[in-house]
Amino acid sequence: MTIHMDLGLDSYDIIVERGVLEKAKEHLNLDRRVLIVTDSGVPDSYAKALESQCKECVVFTVKAGETSKSLEMFGQVLQTLLEHGFSRKDCVVAVGGGVVGDLSGFAASAYMRGIDFYNIPTTLLSQIDSSIGGKTAINLCGVKNVAGAFYQPKKVLIDPELLKTLPERQMANGLAEAIKMALTSDKELFELFEKENIESHLDEIIIRSLNIKKSVVEQDEKETGLRRILNFGHTVGHGIESSEEMTGLFHGECVALGMLPMCKEDVRERVINVLKKCNLYRELEYDWNKIAEAAFHDKKTEGDVVTIVLVNEVGSYEMKKVTCQEVIELAKSVLKG
Predict the structure, then answer these.
(1) pTM, entire model
(2) Cβ atoms of residues 157 and 120 within 8 Å
(3) Is residue 4 annotated as part of the catalytic site, yes or no?
(4) What is the Cα–Cα distance from 106 to 139, expressed in whole angstroms?
(5) Of the listed 214, 238, 241, 253, which one is catalytic?
(6) Which of 20, 25, 139, 303 has the fewest Cβ atoms nearer than 10 Å?
């Protein structure tokens, strides 16, 4: 299936097809120097499958995990491009999850003021969310995604077959983002989570999630308004994720918890049931001072005010400006801990 992201000169296709990695050269221009960026948690066979289709290839492997989204690693990717003589006609391909996509996309945006970038996401989280939309970034001084650029890929290849090697917890991590999008924008998708076997509907979940994000990005590429709905659950979720005590939690697990305070009570009960079904529900002890510090040391705040997304009815949303303290008090009342 081909989903077209319509962004004028920056438009591109998202190919969703089982086995598409093995025939990537049919969709990507690999007849040039190619830098494949991957990480140590991705099976070697994925990068090798792509490398075998390239005319001239360099593989750069980073350590798995959020720590690789660093200024140091960003510099190393740029240095690798330079040392191997990459020109503006060459390209970077991400083969990995969101960390690899964010890092390599940002490097591609900066090298020689921008070279072609392709994304082949290998986790469910990146397949349904971070691989499209053009947000690229690294973390700086402990602040998540604070240095980056809007830089659209030339094409995205999504191969659900690559998910077969993912641990169950990583699958759940990705489902959190699909649940997020369903709550704000797709009542039927949320009901699928409630009523159906998730594994047997995985391709549908991926495609429906992509179509939601596509629609939002096309209307608000640079996040000046509507695109903020994609941050549903992220204000508190990022605070939990960035606070030291919660470093063992995955991004999606934190977003799942961050959604709960933003839902009306009757919706919240339904969400908790879905989170339990997807192994995403947690009861934790929170350090609210550290969570507040992490949540609001953020590019999305305006002084002491932040725009939050509320869901009062499944499939719809409300944006509201509140103070940072009001967000924390709301989160404390719901998450307790």
Answers:
(1) 0.92
(2) yes
(3) no
(4) 11
(5) 238
(6) 303
Find the length of the chain.
337
Among 17, 22, 223, 318, the active-site one is 223
From 177, 221, 241, 253, active-site residue:
177
Dig out the tokens for 232 from the structure: 């549903």
Instruction: Evaluate whether 136 touches 148 at the Cβ level (below 8 Å).
Output: yes
- Is 251 in the active site? yes
Residue where the block lists tokens 């009523």: 195
**What six digits make up the tokens of 95?**
């083969």
Nearest residue to 128 (alpha-carbon basis) of 14, 22, 50, 231: 14
Contact present, 119 and 105 (Cβ < 8 Å): yes
